[in-house]
Design a protein that fits this description.
heterotetramer; A: alpha/beta; four-stranded antiparallel β-sheet; B: four-stranded antiparallel β-sheet; 13 helices; 16% strand; globular; binds pyridoxal-5'-phosphate
Chain lengths: 486, 449, 486, 449
């Protein structure tokens, strides 16, 4: 029984208050003296008017129309939707972290600076890099920052290298970030193994190559075994190697980008280091670099001096700032707490279990769904619904059918190089029973595709709304409520 | 081994699973990692802590910071100590919101999608603009993305930036622009306000936009009438960074022809958190919607005609347009936008007006008392909101050290970014500063030798 | 699509851990030396073994099978299910309140003692009583404590008065508490007005009367207008007057038990003062007394001395203790925060709106449901489903039908003196729109009772489980899971 | 007027509603309140505070207390500083649990009901008993209700209570019993343990039960074998108050014939909270289920055979049996029981054993070091768990004052309740006390002049 949820603007009535503020405790001056009429707002501010209780009911009802990792299995490929430990939430809201101003004098924030210093030490060890900046606030911004560092490196050698090479399997943010930092994108095809085509790469490499952006394991969940050759080839032409760290959850303790020849790395703390995805953020895309790129890092960096920790602004070659202040400190606090509890053995076991869970699930699902690369995968694998498509059932339909089983579907239609892609990443925080239940659901859907395809293409049936018309949402664009739209 | 309570697989299950997939040990699954790259031994990390020990360690780190609840802070400059109603964190603390990811599967994400749609609506109501996105990283990157968008819309590659815009924002803009080979030209200030003659002289056929901040970094509300017309006549756009808490009282950006409105939304329901996570809000006119960076939620219907919400205009975004996307942004500041939406709905029109009035009156009260102190001067004449610049009788560093000893966080030291002002600091007074705290500040200022 | 929720004991597997503890940091002695084998546990401790993430998913799923005040309208008569302000939750968990030990020296808990002192001052003013004890932790225990005070008062006058008079409309805890404190219960009938029958009361009064327990307004939501006469009659025979404060939400700022001649009062902070009901507790049943009962109050009481606040144990006539320590302090903190924000005008407006909402809703519902006493009510009113019963639909069925509308039903079958009772208490924190929607649902159910009674007796249809077999739950009693019950 | 954000009715709506019900003003709805009783004027309460001001006021009150996180506490005596896993409050913080009331409407309350059923199961698993109720107020009232039940079951009116039971618990028992004309007879201790001979002598046909606490108030684990048989032969019951954290290591009460098991459950996932809210757990044998006080959740099925849970055996309760109910309890400590259930499930068998071992080892370490100090003596020989009694060289008050100056909360002063012990204190060492904190205590103890 589907019930529409009213919008905030269709509720409440004039005069209701959701919050109480103190009276003014200073002698008040006439408004005209402080803010002349000509600078004053004319149009009414018609925000909703509701009591606290009504607002809480509204958002409680909205929350029950939403699925999170705590609601059920969330195998969204490439997003590493692992469980978010609750202690991290409690630590991040401590006034000693949440109520610090970024411009406070270093001597008043020694605890925060020490946390950043220790977090950097840990992430350096996990990645094999030499220095870390916490300023980039998401993976995409980490890519932008990394490419800016690469640009500064080449420009310091007065080389204006124009091209950034990116595998066709890379995440959309890679080419977008390259474009945003003024580079020309050269797409490198994958070979039959689903890995970077070494020949094609070598052909594309040249004096104009600024960098190769690589995700390892790649977005097919396969380790780029030729990495050492690739690194050598790129460095040979004077290019640099960029590591998209979104898939680091597959190799912690097993392999480090720093040892694979990468010059600059971004990590997604909201993926690998278990900070919550927040409905689409906030995340943190910290960037690690090898020695040669350190001079160009955004300022300031955290240093440990005799009188304690301090922000070092004395970086003459720094590219400056990519964020108003010091990045998403609140997210780093959660990731640091996670690292403290996992330790070296724990992080390695997390990767081992993530890879084990992925291979276990792949083994079961490949009975009913095409698997382009049928060999052990890393932390994720990509199925193809090409067989199902023959019955008129696309990957997207399979995803919608999964909603009725209480599972969040895998990523669909990415990577683009797999037709009707279904990218599955279970992560290490799922139990064997959950993997089995998910496999049973996928097997039942595969059976339905054969016996009653319409049942699948009509899904979902149990969600708060039926299948939504995405085309109409573009054609009849409505991106805000307006009184007329009543 | 600590952290085990986040790893449900037992040893028995690991071996059963390995058997099922025909591998002897986990290492068999890592044979594709070339030996030269295999990490040998254990990573050199501190010994793992139990939850009890980790809590102790983190509490001790937190306790070694002086936080805004332990003292009276007059620091602003882009991050503010505004009151946060308790209910905000009781909404963002619902796991269905904070453990979900981007609402790709709309039918299972109507909670996040409707919350984004309502957030977008309230940002439009606040700014007067016609379309807003789901959120960007912070005020600085939002302004930079607004400038990049202006270049894309006008097909031009230069923007004019007032020196009155935050130095942090200008640094990020500079960085974003020089990476893409776009140019920024800084316009000087006179008496703390953008030099209108300089603007008129600089605006030409090659200018994509004029970028200003209102209030500007000195706290002044600059006159804006006529600016937009001047720009539009030359085919250029007006791009602004605004303080959302001023908008219940101050002209909405749409009321003076602004094309792209950005700003820092941290002050609406989010703690300062040492400068992050913050909230970049972004709004524009109907005609530029398809050029807007970031995610956008839109309304539609399901097959029974029931209302629902989806991510719309996704073709502009990186996961589809890749290098031709309007922006590379993927994860944004969704939970901080949710906090801002709950804040705006809880405050309502009357509450937002009250907060703005409290800031206006308290800042004016502080300004008047400081101006009366000998040795101190309000650097610029003009209309202020909640921040103002004060010329000091001693270096801001020295003054602030003295204030700290009296449990006061003094104003932001302007000398490093605006040497032309000599010794000056930017003071901020919000609704959370009591009269007693302001009076204590004034007394402490008096005490300079 | 109803899905059963697995029990904790049907999940997980041996070796999984839900929490991590530190290693022992002191030199360990052999267990046999510290705890000889003969004192050691022999039977296995077969608690569940699950990871933190699986446990969170279990309890998140359980929460989504439950309705709270934040989920929707909760007009459960006599329980005052008003909105619970969120600030109260944040204040109560501050370490400065949540992490105090009850036996700490007074000098280390001056903030806690001042809070109790100020809370007492506020509650004395609201009730018109002279002293308050915070030791009783629920209304029922408040009744027990009040009756013990009454017993001590009479015994101090070496009178062993045996009888406690209780109106037939009183809540079950009243007679149960009287019995638990060794009294004989004498039930006083209500008259045609639905109030205490003054004649019958006077007949029952005598030298053996220890006290009359009265709820005012009573559980029919009607004010006992003869209260002054009643008080005089009781005092005349040397009896005392006990006030069940569960319905105080109707009269704050309008009338005070202290002014009505009551000698002892209990309040339910989890009703009138907005602390959450917690799924059935914790609550707080603070007791207020007039001067003559003060000497017998449980010890200690909070006093304000020169060197600050202190616990006063010097109460020679005190009845001793009714709780291990100082009552539900954590609940008092929330109630005190609520009182600080409401102030005198706010509390009065709360009662005014509670009464207005009840009368508005009664006016609409009496069109379709029998109303025994058709005159303005206080904060609640009692409908009767006698007409519906003629169509074979009982009050209980109407309640089950309401579940499908997302409303928690009114209290059913209480007070016992109304046949097929439906006791509705909207409280002041509900908007007009919610009352209208609830009325529409009740009207639709009344229509269905006429047109399709089976539809109503078969409800609920949308809840996680169908109508549950309460008889079988007693006949085939299973009050715990056991391995055999698999 | 503050508090308005908890009152959705606007003035316009109030007048519309008044009109609809035919009343001119709200006062018309209070005409049934006789004038003599009508409260005149405004209640004399402090001026209402906004949420911001209330938070400030309450934070300042909280800050004026020394809490257990700011110091090392060795205080026990019934309320304990045990570690609470973070996840506990993330479950009890779900509004569907904490804003609901008693699950009268089962089909809409399966969350609370199943949680109670699982709590009851785990209390039985811990104690070895066959049935447990949903919760009682605290350890003290649970023991009193257990004694009252024993009288009801045996039809007798006297219970024997060891002096080793907590003085607070004995006071509450005394109060509950004398109100109903039931008798308690206190049995003495010898060397800190219940005098077995006195028990044998006192047990007669008029005795309903023997009441003991394990560990007892001096921290000693008394020998129990043979006690139950002795009682059962006389038709009496064994009623115990136990420390649940000891049960992973110590004999389960069922293993030595206990009839009624009660205890304080605060240590399982609930903060000390200045002594309340706490958690009284209660378990008994199958044959006494119908005599048990409090609510009980039971399993059943719906009409499709689907499993569900309901409140069962309600006929014993006050809302049905009124004066013949087994107890007057209505609201209990449901949310604290939920916290305990989450705690037990999170710890699991291995975690519970680890907590118990940590307490055992750390208390033994402290005991050994204190015993080695001259002037101090471990008052009684015997087997301890996490608390132990120490005879002091100076008054506990003086000692504790000195310890306080070194940020230590010393042991519980026994002299007021057990004058026969002279200057003695009860020290408690749980898993949250580090070795460093214990060593600091020992040093500080040494410093007595
Ligand atoms: C492989 C890969 N790279 C980069 C990104 C971008 O990271 P973010 O969303 O943090 O900007 C993602 C995000 O999903 C990703 O999966
Ligand atoms: C009228 C009345 N009196 C007394 C009580 C008992 O209060 P408590 O549940 O706090 O023990 C209630 C509880 O619902 C009640 O409604």
């Amino acid at each position: 029984m589907r019930k529409e949820k009213t919008l905030l603007f269709e509720m409440g009535s004039p005069g209701r208050r959701g919050c109480s503020l103190p009276d003014c405790d200073v002698p008040e001056k006439p408004l005209d003296d402080l803010l002349p009429a000509r600078l004053r707002r004319r149009q009414p501010l018609d925000l909703p008017e509701l009591s606290e209780g009504e607002l809480i009911r509204h958002y409680t009802a909205l929350s029950r129309r939403n699925h999170g990792v705590d609601s059920g299995f969330y195998p969204l490929g490439s997003c590493t939707m692992k469980y978010n430990p609750k202690i991290n939430e409690d630590i991040a809201v401590l006034p000693g972290f949440a109520y610090l101003h970024p411009c406070q004098d270093d001597c008043t924030v020694q605890g925060a600076l020490e946390l950043l210093y220790r977090a950097e030490a840990g992430l350096k060890e996990v990645t094999g890099m030499d220095r870390i900046t916490f300023q980039p606030v998401a993976g995409a911004q980490g890519e932008l920052t990394g490419l800016m560092l690469i640009q500064a490196y080449h420009r310091a050698r007065n080389e204006e290298r124009r091209k950034v090479l990116i595998p066709d399997s890379a995440h959309g943010t890679n080419p977008a970030s390259a474009a945003m930092s003024g580079f020309e994108v050269v797409q490198i095809p994958s070979d039959a193994r689903g890995l970077v085509d070494l020949e094609k790469l070598k052909e594309a490499l040249g004096p104009d190559t600024a960098a190769l952006m690589l995700t390892n394991p790649n977005t097919l969940g396969l380790f780029e075994a030729d990495i050492m050759e690739i690194a050598a080839a790129v460095h040979e032409v004077g290019g640099l190697l960029y590591y998209d760290g979104a898939n680091l959850n597959a190799v912690m303790g097993f392999a480090r980008p720093g040892d694979m020849g990468f010059d600059v790395v971004h990590l997604n703390l909201h993926k690998t280091f278990a900070t919550p995805h927040g409905g689409g953020g906030p995340g943190s895309g910290v960037v690690g670099v090898k020695e040669r790129l350190v001079p160009y890092l955004p300022l300031p960096l955290v240093e440990k001096g005799e009188q304690g920790y301090y922000f070092n602004y004395d970086l003459p070659l720094s590219i400056g700032k990519v964020h108003g202040f010091h990045g998403n400190f609140g997210v780093v606090v959660k990731a640091y707490t996670y690292m403290c509890m996992m330790g070296a053995a724990g992080l390695k076991q997390a990767s081992a279990d993530a890879v084990l869970n992925a291979n276990y699930l792949m083994r079961r699902l490949k009975k009913n769904y095409a698997l382009t690369h049928d060999r052990p995968c890393k932390h994720e694998f990509v199925l193809s619904a090409v067989d199902q498509k023959k019955q008129g059932v696309a990957a997207g339909d399979i995803a919608k059918a999964l909603l009725d089983y209480g599972f969040h579907p895998p990523t669909v239609y990415f990577p683009l190089i797999v037709e009707e892609a279904l990218m599955v990443e279970p992560t290490e925080t799922e139990s064997m029973e959950t993997l089995d239940r998910f496999a049973e659901a996928m097997e039942e859907i595969a059976r339905l595709v054969k016996e009653d395809p319409a049942r699948v293409t009509g899904a979902p049936y149990t969600t708060p709304v039926g299948r939504l018309d995405e085309v109409r949402a573009v054609r009849q664009l409505r991106v805000r409520w307006t009184p007329e739209s009543e | 081994m600590s952290g085990r309570h986040f790893l449900p697989l037992t040893d028995a299950e690991r071996s059963a699973m390995l058997k099922r997939i025909g591998a002897d040990s986990v290492d068999d699954l890592f044979l594709d990692v070339p030996a030269a790259v295999r990490f040998q031994g254990e990573m050199q990390l501190p010994p793992a802590l139990s939850e009890l020990e980790a809590a102790g360690h983190l509490h001790s780190l937190a306790a070694r910071n002086k936080n805004l609840r332990d003292c009276a802070s007059f620091l602003g400059a882009g991050v503010y100590d505004h009151f946060i109603p308790s209910m905000v964190r009781h909404v963002t603390g619902r796991s269905e919101f904070y453990t979900a990811y981007t609402p790709y599967q709309a039918e299972m994400s109507q909670g996040v999608l409707q919350a984004i749609f309502e957030y977008q609506t309230m940002i439009c109501q606040l700014t007067g603009m016609e379309a807003a996105n789901a959120s960007l990283y912070d005020g600085a990157t939002a302004l930079a993305e607004g400038a990049v968008m202006a270049c894309a819309v006008t097909g031009r590659s230069k923007v004019l930036v007032s020196r009155g815009v935050s130095p942090f924002y200008r640094a990020v803009l500079q960085n974003y622009f020089q990476a893409r080979g776009l140019q920024t030209e800084e316009l000087p200030c006179r008496d703390g306000q953008t030099d209108r003659d300089a603007v008129e002289k600089a605006v030409g056929g090659d200018v994509a936009a004029l970028i200003q901040q209102r209030p500007n970094f000195f706290g002044l509300l600059e006159e804006m009438d006529g600016v937009a017309d001047l720009l539009h006549k030359q085919g250029a756009l007006l791009v602004l960074s605004v303080d959302p808490l001023s908008l219940p009282l101050v002209q909405a950006p749409a009321e003076y022809g602004t094309d792209i409105v950005t700003g820092e939304g941290q002050g609406m329901g989010n703690p300062p958190s040492f400068g992050g996570p913050l909230l970049g809000f972004f709004a524009t006119r109907e005609k530029y919607i398809r050029r807007m960076p970031g995610r956008i939620a839109g309304e539609t219907v399901d097959h029974d005609g029931g209302r629902g919400f989806v991510l719309t205009l996704q073709t502009r975004e990186q996961h589809i347009r890749r290098e031709r996307a309007t922006s590379n942004i993927c994860s944004n500041q969704a939970l901080n936008a949710l906090a801002a939406a709950v804040y705006l709905a809880a405050m309502g029109p009357a509450g937002m007006r009250e907060v703005a009035l409290l800031c206006l009156q308290k800042a004016a009260y502080a300004r008047e008392k400081i101006a009366a102190l000998d040795g101190y001067r309000i650097t610029f004449p003009g209309v202020y909101f909640k921040e103002f610049t004060v010329s000091l009788p001693e270096a801001a560093r020295t003054l602030n050290r003295r204030l700290l000893s009296q449990n006061i966080l003094g104003g932001f030291d302007l000398s490093k970014y605006y040497p032309e002002l000599g010794e000056a600091a930017l003071f901020c007074v919000t609704e959370t500063r009591t009269r007693a705290e302001i009076d204590t500040l004034v007394q402490a200022l008096e005490g300079w030798s």
